Amino acid sequence: MQHFLLSAAARTLSLKAVFRMGEDAAYRTFCELRWPETDGEAICPRCGCTETYNITSRRKFKCVACHHQFSVTSGTIFASRKLSFTDLLAAIAIFVNGAKGIAALQLSRDLDVQYKTAFVLAHKLREAMALEQASAKLDGIVEIDGAYFGGYVKPENNKADRKDRRLLENRSGKRQCVVIMRERKGRSLPFVVASEGEAVPLVRDHVGTLATIHADEGSGWDALHAGWDTHRVNHSIQFMDKGVCTNQAESYFSRLRRMEVGTHHHIAGPYIGAYAREAAWREDNRRVDNGSQASMVVNAAMASPVSRQWKGYWQR
Hints:
single chain; 35% helix; globular; 8 strands; 8 helices; 3-stranded antiparallel beta sheet
């Protein structure tokens, strides 16, 4: 049987189609996604009035009621953008086509923009994607696991000088734990904590009390038995024990590791959460065609408020 990603059904959007549509069609696409209830006709974000003047020379609108001037990206994560609408759609198409993510350096070369521009744009898309996951509640069978990222300590050249890097006193203090809660045939929720045990309060917030939890033998998960029907599998003996496993969680970490090692090569500590949420989104939508993925990202971006973290000069 042919893999989904190799089939024609997975390819419903191409860069060729994006650049052929032209700036006017790209602009119209953003309008229809921003105001789907009026088929792309502008709605004032300040007072909600549907009657507006169209300032065609600047692609802006003026509200008849409150006289507020706004654009299709005003109040969204693309506010104050300087890239053309075609370039924004192309960037989103490139972004979703990377099964293991897309490096900002490659995005900057494909769009012919500065590296900082591509870096900020990619993180804006990650921020929009993460807003879809924020309110998720998991139920059914939920697999929970943790993996550690960052904090690499280079070993000494001489074997006699090398220290046991497993010991706390020989670590750099920068290592972080990414914990994934993954509902079978459902959503994935990642969190960044210092150790696996610190994720237990997060489980209370995001996993239903009637859920069944599958976890490994790590001592950090012992507290889960008090609140949920929890089953454990000892990975030092076997990967699956009578249907109990964390294979879906391991699949997520496989994708995230390949993003870190093969695509981005290094992920700075403050940004690991953003990349973890991106990997979760890609894992959840891995069987969705790239055209639908791009629509999901654009819809999320147009529904997201102005970014408080990713803003400033680097817009082009």
